[in-house]
Each structure stands twice: as structure tokens, then as C-alpha cells.
User: Fold this.
Amino acid sequence: MDRNHISADMVAKELGQQAAIRPSAYKKAKKMWSDRYLYLLLLPVIAYYLIFHYAPMYGVIISFQDYNMFKGVFGSTFIGLENFRDIFSNSDFYVVLRNTLMLNCLTLLFGFPGPIILALLLNEVTSVRFKRSIQTLVYLPHFISWVVVASLIIPMLSPRDGIVNAVITALGGKSIYFMGEASWWIVVYVLAGIWKSIGWGAIIYLAALTAIDTTLYEAAVIDGAGRWKQTFYITLPGIRPTIIVLLILNIGHMMSVGFDQPFLLGNGAVIQVSDVLSTYVYRLGLLSADVAHSTAVGLFQAVVNFIMLIGANFLSKKITGEGIY
Assistant:
């Protein structure tokens, strides 16, 4: 009798739990069905990541193989960490690693505040027409290919007939070989990257600025706070979560440099500073057909970027209490 009584109670309790769950699951299913067209819009994005990001991931196996293109990925000999030992024992790898970190750190130091400052300045513009005109002008460089940008910058900075050196010599200065001297090339690289991305990056901060409660500014004006105090005590704290998230994401890409900019702006005279991991992988994988070592370098980049992303997020949550998750 006791066993039957306990069994009956357990069954009743289970049925009660299922009855409580069913309405919630039904509501979720009904909600998803009502928003089915919005979910359909996700399909191209999901397909893109599955095809171009997740499907090729099996290729990391190559970094642990003595890869032979005739045998393929699954027919090549497995050699463990031998490719990584070869990379870490190559002095050229540490040169490109240094260059990658140096250019990324300089870009982060001088380029990251740029969109924030531009967004704050645009936010102070009262004329809507003037504001939109400026926004259009600063957004345009983002849509220009690095091929076009390089084809404009290199002739402009030519020491012989470039317009910049023509102005310098006209003012009594000496012609500068901007693209042939390592120190000047770094300056050009950083400034070109800022010019191309500052307008596009400001869009995110402008969107964040619209979420700040305007009554805070009204209260600040009543209390006698000027524009500078409003900026430091209302505007910047209001967009701080956005700044932190973007900073963490930028730190997570510290080991990656886009291929186009260093490859197109670089040349043999400044290869000691322009050669980065992306161009190194290009030379190994395509020019030298050393697919195994180039894949190992790419995997090393991905792992280090992941560690830096997690570390930056951890420190951010410890210091500020905010992060990307």
C-alpha cells in the first residue's frame, strides 16, 4: 500500500510538472511561429558562418600533418607538433610577430579613441544638414578598397613628385621618403587606418549616444554644469558599456592584421616593419606552397586571440563589472 501510495504521488507530481511546462513551451513555440519571417532573415547569416567559418575548420588538422596535396587532408602523415616546433625555431616568425603586435598596439592606442572623439563632436553639432554632410564625408573612406587607397597614398607621398613633398620643399623643408623609411611608414600606416575606419566606427557610438536620457542633461544644465562636465559625467559614462565591449573585441584581434593594408602599403625597403603574420602566412602558404606551416601559424593566431579575448573580458569584469558576456 505504501509503495502504491508513493508511486501514485510521484506520478501525480510528474504530471503536474509536465502540465506546468507545456503552456510555457507552447507559448514559446507560438511566439517563434508568429516571428517566423524574422527567423528566416537569420538563415543567410547562419548559412554564411556554417559554410565559410565552421565547415573549413577541419582544415586545422593540416597543422599537425606533413601535408601532401596529392594525398589530401585525411591521407597525409600525422606528425604532431613538429610544424609548431619549426615555426617557433624560425627567427623570421618572431620578427613578424613583433611587427604584428607593434602595429596593432599603435592602431589601438591612436585609432581606438578616434571614433569616440568624432562621435562626441558630431553629437554637439546642432545643424542637422551640416551634421549629415559631415557624417557622409567621414563614412565614405570605409567603402573605398585598400587597393584604391594605396594607389592614392603612394603617389601623394612620393619623394620626387608627390604633392605632400612638394608642399614640404616649397616651405623650405627637405623631401621625405615616407614609404621607404621604417619610422615614417609606420606613421603612414596608422594614419591611413584611422582615416579609413574612424567614420564607420563612430556610427556605433552615435547610436549609443541616442540611448542616453536627455533629462540628465537638462538636470545638469539646471545645476550649472557646462558642456565639458556634461561630457565627462553624463555622456562618457553613458557610452562606457559600448566602449568596453569594443575595446575587448579589439584586444581579441591583437594577433591579427588585415592582409590588404600591410601588403599594399608595404615594400621591400620597409619589410622589416611591414611584414606581419598575415603576409607571412601568404608567403608560406601560397608563394612557397608550405600549407602545413602556414596553417600552424593561422592556428597559433586564433588560439592566442581567443586567450586574449577571454583575458580582456575577465579583467574588464573584475575592474569595471562589465564585459561582453
